[in-house]
């Protein structure tokens, strides 16, 4: 398989993984929010947090199990990974704290 074909397949795989990750995490957050508060909101900050979490998962795990192999593939640093995961969790949990402040 040529490098271009592997690259195209990897981009399609990445888009599918992004949709699945955002769909599963967003649905879970939506259900938990509705269960806790009895009403629904569509939190934008949680979506950004989910995208950051996907980025960390892709760079540290999923990119090494795909079709496109490159010498430039490398994991994120440990400090950057912890910082991004912390930011992601803060953004995901932020909509849950807002109703408590009112």
UniProtKB/TrEMBL annotation:
It comes from the Bacteria. Keywords: Membrane, Transmembrane, Transmembrane helix. The chain crosses the membrane at residues 12-33, 39-58, 79-101. This is Uncharacterized protein. It comes from Paenibacillus graminis.
